[in-house]
Amino acid sequence: MIAQGGMGHETAASGKEIFIIAGEASGDMHAAGLCREIAKKRPDIHISGVGGPAMEASGVKLLFSSSSLAVVGVFEVLRHAAPIMRAFRSVIKWLKKQRPALLILVDYPDFNLLVASRAKRMGIPVFYYISPQLWAWREGRVRKIRALVDRMAVILPFEKEFYKKHGMDVAYVGHPLLDSVRPPESRSEFLDMAGIPAESRLVGLLPGSRRGEIERFAGVMFEAARRVKERIPDTCFVIPVAPGIGSETRGLIEKALVDRIPEKWRPAFRLVHNRTHEAIAASEIILAASGTVTLEAGIIGTPMVVIYSVSPLTYHLGRHLIKVKYCSLVNLVAGREIVPEILQNEITPERLADELVSRLEDPATLEETRKALGQLIPLLGGGGASERAASEALLLLEEQESR
Length: 403
Prior knowledge:
2 domains; alpha/beta; 19 helices; globular; 13 strands; disordered N terminus; 7-stranded parallel beta sheet; Rossmann fold
């Protein structure tokens, strides 16, 4: 079973304890799949951790929610330093008291590598699932990972070779999205549920799941959508609200919608809950903040325009250090530009509207993009990533148990 108790639940007598940390929404989802597979293989193990609703739904006992950790960029992290350090102290206190048999870290390197360094001093073995994007920048961190991590499972095909070049033998387990992304069979059922006319040209708007992303992107996306609506009047827009987005964050989306969209057009904009994959599949094209959702859309086969922006200071630092050509996972996995990426100051309502309209008015380009996206799935390693990752984690645990 997966534990349901708190810091005081009885672990020593009733089974092994694992602690897992996932710092943001995509990590929460992948960590939940991993934990379910561990529970199948080792029902004696109790799992506690830091994460979100997906982990909690899988049975993990959360020490606290990861929502306070979900920030992006060096200077963004600095602005949120106080809650992050409180979270760090809580985790270290828990590790000292419970002494789990294994610590599992999922992505989120700024926080997780700090925890790993303390766990190493306590003699707690560390399993890292989903590599930080060291291949994009901060390549020097490989040395730190090599010193602190006992075993690593990676999910992108080029990562194994990257770590091999740096003297680390990591396990490539494939991408867990292949097990969780299920394109729906019926577009008409989704449109009917959302109240969208069947004859509409549908565009998906996905400003991200973090508060900072929504503050940066929702307004400019809605401004762009207004311009698209002016040029293609039968266009409708769907805004999927991800699981775990609280009422305050949803309120930011709703306020941006009211501020930017004339009242006469608001019925053409639909917020839907917990239907992200259905919304993506029903859309002719989506406008999305760079992140895991772009790979979800790629697996579903929906064309997209991707935007990415961080604070000017973070961008100024990063542009001298970034070692990859693309920011979206779709283009990174493909090794070429399948979908357009709009960055930083180029993210204007006019530019985004032009990108969307040019594609909506060119069916051949949309079809060419769909065909290119269809070639991603074989590159992502097939299904079963969570099960393979669980086997790797338990192999490390069993090695420790046999000593």
